[in-house]
Write a structure and sequence with these properties.
The chain has 480 residues and is an alpha+beta fold. Helix content is 34%, strand content 26%. The protein is built from 13 helices and 23 strands. It has an eleven-stranded mixed β-sheet with strand order 3-7-8-14-11-10-9-22-23-21-20, with helices on both faces. The chain has a five-stranded mixed β-sheet with strand order 16-15-17-18-19, with helices on both faces. A hairpin with a 2-residue loop joins strand 5 and strand 6. It starts with 15 loop residues before the first helix and ends with a strand.
Length: 480
């Protein structure tokens, strides 16, 4: 197979899937675990997750939610209490039947999500309207037995946060559902530099057991969609199943309205596919383990003086809050180091050698644009945060421009099938299962989201010509 460069990464245009799989391994983000479908997140990849986690956790706590932790093992009987929930997750469950050398009286499910166990605990903790709202978040791992695993995107075990809340009314729970989606959209946009469409899922695409699912959909650089986060209004379904009741201010016993919402480590896969190119990763500075790498250049006789300046410059950058590394590895050429850090997506690179020292300048290379410029050594640290902000904004605008170029409003089935082969198609849709299945059979595309921020518009279904059941066009795409 032809290679796009000497690092052995297949070009995106040749085989996007191969490009992705090779890049995850070559950039040392993750490796395959010993159990099929599991992954080992390596330090560089885990640091991205830590940075994302911090940004998200701060926003969750700022809205009054508190972190807690719930058990990994859940009695299997809990999953039978909510019919749609158990039906939706049954194919993905991992079940423990033996422990301590003996068969268990009741099998235990390794959590695929925590609505069941948290519902049980909410029923114990909630008694009065004064206990509401109950706003809980947990950071955890979950297990879903994936048939077609792929590192970060679909793995048997993955990391996430899951918010779970209980409210006195439908209106309060709806506000919570939308608040969670707003938090996710802000993190996607402002932290991951990932433009997303936010809106409702169609009925058959909702979370199992939910009355409403709000989703974020992002476009990858092969035109496919990635679900970047979801927020669910569960109504009183789980409150009924787990007896989550409260006494109202008027003394009437009522069922609580609950929500759940989550964003997972698949966001790392989304960041890779939304921003990367044939040279490797391009990381948004806010999630880059290393925002600036300094590469000292010089012969053995000159390198000590260069390293001294490089080290001092790194200290100055750390003092202004920049994550920086000096690549002082011996035996590696400057060209090798440049390629190494480009593959890993470091936003900005500083090159400095003896001639630069003599001129009191450094060369700054931009991973996104590929441009180089000279800067005075004394001005590097003071302006670096602004340069990283400009990089972050430019990366977002690049992704948004790509999405917009590959989004088509369609009014014929021929236009529709051509559009979903390249990106997003906006089309009127009747909501009928037969029409949805025909689209899936013909194109593998599915309805991704009924977007909030588009003009209300009625029309006729792209498939059958019947009146659309939605207030606007629906976004369809092939998806991960």
């Amino acid at each position: 197979m032809t290679r796009g460069n000497d690092r052995g990464v297949t070009p995106q245009s040749e085989d996007f899937s191969a490009w992705y799989n090779e890049l995850v391994l070559r950039a040392e983000l993750a490796d395959r675990g010993p159990v099929r479908g599991t992954m080992v997140i390596r330090p560089y990849g885990y640091r991205i997750w830590e940075l994302l986690q911090r940004e998200l956790d701060d926003r969750i706590k700022a809205t009054g939610h508190e972190n807690a932790y719930f058990p990994l093992l859940i009695p299997q009987s809990y999953f039978t209490r909510e019919a749609e929930h158990v039906e939706g997750f049954a194919p993905e469950l991992a079940v423990v039947t033996h422990a301590g050398g003996e068969e268990l009286d009741e099998p235990l499910v390794v959590r695929p999500t925590s609505e069941a166990v948290i519902g049980e605990m909410f029923s114990r903790w909630i008694d009065s309207y004064r206990d509401l709202p109950l706003l809980i978040n947990q950071w955890a791992n979950v297990v879903r037995w994936e048939l077609r695993p792929r590192l970060f995107l679909r793995t048997t075990e993955f990391l996430w946060q899951e918010g779970h809340t209980a409210h006195a009314t439908h209106e309060e729970a709806t506000v919570e559902t939308l608040l969670a989606s707003e938090i996710y959209a802000e993190v996607a946009r402002d932290v991951a530099a990932m433009p997303v469409l936010v809106g409702d899922k169609t009925e058959r695409e909702r979370f199992a057991g939910a009355q409403r699912t709000v989703s974020l959909e992002a476009m990858m650089r092969d035109g496919r969609a990635l679900q970047a986060g979801t927020s669910h209004y569960l109504g009183t379904n789980f409150a009924t199943a787990f007896n989550i009741k409260f006494t109202s201010a008027t003394g009437v016993e009522e069922l609580a309205h609950t929500t759940s919402w989550g964003m997972s480590s698949r966001m790392i896969g989304g960041i890779i596919m939304c921003h990367g190119d044939d040279r490797g990763l391009i990381l948004p500075p806010k999630l880059a383990p290393i925002e600036v790498v300094i590469v000292p250049i010089g012969k053995p006789a000159d390198i000590a003086a260069v390293l001294e300046v490089a080290t001092d410059l790194a200290t100055q950058l750390r003092d202004v809050g920049v994550r920086v590394k000096v690549d002082d590895r011996e035996g590696a050429s400057p060209g090798f180091k440049f390629n190494y850090w480009e593959l890993r997506g470091v936003p900005l690179r500083i090159e400095i050698g003896p001639r630069d020292l003599a001129a009191n300048v450094v060369t700054l290379a931009n991973r996104l644009s590929g441009e180089k410029e000279q800067l005075g050594i004394d001005s590097v640290a003071s302006g670096m945060r602004d340069r990283l902000s400009e990089f972050q904004d430019a990366l977002y605008e690049r992704a948004k421009g790509f999405r917009d170029e590959h989004t088509v409003t369609t009014d014929s089935y021929e236009e529709f099938t051509a559009a979903v082969a390249q990106g997003f198609a906006l089309a009127h849709f009747c909501g009928d299962e037969a029409c949805e299945q025909k689209i899936k059979d013909d194109t593998t595309a599915t309805p991704r989201v009924i977007p909030f921020d588009v003009v209300a518009e009625t029309g006729n279904c792209i498939v059958c010509g019947s009146a659309s059941m939605f207030p606007t066009r629906v976004v369809f795409a092939r998806a991960y």
